[in-house]
Please model this.
Amino acid sequence: MPVEPPVIVSSDPSSFPHSVLRDRHPAIVRRVLADHPYPPEVRQRLERLLQSDAVTPLEAGAHDAEQWSAWGEGMYGRSWYDVPFLWAENYFYRRLLEAVDYFAPGAWRGIDPFGPQKAADLPGPQELAELDALQELPEEEQAAGVVTAALWGNRADLGFRLVQRAEQPAGELLVDERKRMWEVLRGGAVVLVADNAGRELLPDLVLLDFLLSTGRAARAELHVKPAPYFVSDALAADVLAELARFPEGSAVGGRLAAALRDGRLRLHTEDFYCAPLTFHAAPEGLAARFAAAELTILKGDLNYRRLVGDRDWPATTSFERVTDYFPGPVAALRTVKSDVVTGLDEGAERNLPTSWRTSGAFALIQVRA
Ligand SMILES: O=P(O)(O)OC[C@@]1(O)O[C@H](CO)[C@@H](O)[C@@H]1O
Model:
């Protein structure tokens, strides 16, 4: 194991993490306030969240207060900018859910504060038709197409789009190890850890359908978040909303529904997916699921940070080495939207634009088998 560089914090005002806490989080709260006719006490709590300088613990009665008191040891009372970035972001979403009574008994319980944004991002008939049309291609081209679509679907999560212009230049793949992905898959079980709903989840579902219908996988689990998170992250309800978009007679939609019905495709979730932790701390049951799979596919930027550790790794750090703890073969499909990168060749960074780590214009397909 290489010497571990420090965990990323947000204290440097010129850093990406600082901009997330300073600009993105307030924009997210403002959007949630605009999207819902919340009562005054909820609006006040959201405003207070915006104003808070220091991190304070959850109310004692909160359903997961004990968990968060353990996860937050040493954090409370400190500035949001001084605690680890990954922790601060996770806790921000937890506080936001608290503010909108997401877990509290009452009428607002279970109402997704990001629901309207997600609904507006559901794929339209043209996107569905384009993905369905991939099936007309020869299998090898389809294989390339479904992976490319799932990869670039990750490019514009809704949190990112709140602060970034929507249209971006064409993307560039910095590492492409998809060949190894295909070599690992021999008709066993696959886990796909989803990231965003909407335009990312659709190609993820198409990828799962491709794996199942070509026999590259016999079974698949689609792991989703247990609660709203990072604005657009997919919940089981988002999967169902997406499936309902496939038109009558869609071959892909029909096969996915059949696979869910006969158990070849299963939805799964764990509280861990909303914990401020990396995969090093995956609970035993989840680690066993990863270990039993021929391949775990991790989607997105945040899952990448949780996989390699949210640290200032030099970009040439070996991906193989930092992921060798992961309990089974793992593939990361990720557009680069934060500072954490590993697995680049020496010198590869040299010709990239200064913003390459956060622009969403570059991507990685990395595999550790
Ligand atoms: O995981 P995703 O949806 O690909 O990206 C999540 C993200 O937008 O949120 C974090 C910043 O808040 C970063 O990890 C990344 O920029």
